[in-house]
Each structure stands twice: as structure tokens, then as C-alpha cells.
């Protein structure tokens, strides 16, 4: 069993090593992502927010302020629209998650019951509309029945077993049996 334990320890050590390697990989990926986001942010700011150069005269300053106000308003509108879209999407996502949860909860595999089903019905259920071949199992059964008809006739002639027993019971019945040569 010591060989087995060594094997198990080796497997556990390997698993731990793989875990730590995966975590290390994840950490480096997260760091790369953060650095890429920072670069993207700097590029966006450089493109959309040129460095501010303040003009000398009062009138030029007022014009600059008006431009900045207009820009702030348009950015604010964009931000609001984006927030509304985000809320709507989040709500949809939440609803879908709830639906999924409900469906998972409701659907329990039903206990299977035996169902009498003809071969045709079974093939139709399995193959859908593609099922064209007709398997008439009753034809075979009819052939068997033809052979059985003679037995059935005998049974009909014998009739109800209760009457036979009543007829054969007592001295009268024995006399009949004797006369019939049974």
C-alpha cells in the first residue's frame, strides 16, 4: 500500500503544482489586461482632451468656457444614455437568469411509466415524420389465431365449466358419464 500512497502523494503534488501554475498565469493575464486598459485610456484622453491652452483676452476665455460647457452637456447625455442601456441589459440578464433558475427548479425527471405502444407509434415517436415503413404486427397475430380456432371451438362446445361440474356431480352425473363412455 506504500506504493499506492506514494502514487497518491505524487498526484496530489502534481495537482497543487498545476493549480499554482494556473493561478500565476491568471495573475499575469490580469496584469496585462490592466496595462492594456491604461494605455487605451491614455490614448482616448490624448485624442479627445487636447492639452488646454488658455487665451489672453476675456472674450476668448468666455468663448472657451461656452465650448467646454457644450462639450460637458453632450458627454453627460452620452453617459446617461449608456447608463440606461446598461440598466436595461442588466435587467434583461437578471430576468433570463431567473427564468433559467425557475425552469431548472420546475423540471424534475418524471418517473417512467410503462406505456403500451404499437411499433408504428414507437417508430413515429423516435423518427418523427421521416417514419414511412409500416410494421403491421397484427398480421402475424392473425395467423396465430387461425391455428387456435379449433381449440376455441372445443372450449365453446365444453361450455361453462360450472355447468359441467354440476352435471357430473352426484349419482346422476356418474350415470351420464358411464353411458357416454368417458
Could you explain the architecture of this structure?
With 182 residues, this protein is an all-alpha fold. Among the domains are: 1-51; 53-106. Helices cover 80% and strands 0% of the residues. The chain contains six helices and no strands. Belongs to the troponin I family. Troponin I is the inhibitory subunit of troponin, the thin filament regulatory complex which confers calcium-sensitivity to striated muscle actomyosin ATPase activity.
Write the layout of secondary structure elements.
Layout: H1 2-48, H2 58-106, H3 119-127, H4 137-158, H5 161-168, H6 170-180
Pfam family, one: Troponin
Coiled coil: 27-106
GO molecular function: actin binding
Short description:
Keywords: Acetylation, Actin-binding, Coiled coil, Muscle protein. By secondary structure, the chain is mostly helical.
Amino acid at each position: 500500500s506504500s506504493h499506492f500512497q506514494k502514487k497518491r502523494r505524487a498526484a496530489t503534488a502534481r495537482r497543487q503544482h498545476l493549480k499554482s501554475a494556473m493561478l500565476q498565469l491568471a495573475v499575469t493575464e490580469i496584469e496585462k489586461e490592466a496595462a492594456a486598459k491604461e494605455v487605451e485610456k491614455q490614448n482616448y484622453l490624448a485624442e479627445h482632451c487636447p492639452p488646454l491652452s488658455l487665451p489672453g483676452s476675456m472674450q476668448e476665455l468666455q468663448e472657451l468656457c461656452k465650448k467646454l460647457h457644450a462639450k460637458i452637456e453632450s458627454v453627460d447625455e452620452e453617459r446617461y444614455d449608456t447608463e440606461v442601456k446598461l440598466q436595461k441589459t442588466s435587467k434583461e440578464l437578471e430576468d433570463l437568469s431567473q427564468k433559467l433558475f425557475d425552469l431548472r427548479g420546475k423540471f424534475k425527471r418524471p418517473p417512467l411509466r410503462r406505456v403500451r405502444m404499437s411499433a408504428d407509434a414507437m417508430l413515429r415517436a423516435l423518427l418523427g415524420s421521416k417514419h414511412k415503413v409500416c410494421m403491421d404486427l397484427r398480421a402475424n397475430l392473425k395467423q396465430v389465431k387461425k391455428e387456435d380456432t379449433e381449440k376455441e371451438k372445443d372450449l365453446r362446445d365444453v361450455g361453462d365449466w360450472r355447468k359441467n361440474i354440476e352435471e357430473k356431480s352426484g349419482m346422476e352425473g356418474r350415470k351420464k358419464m358411464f353411458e357416454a363412455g368417458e
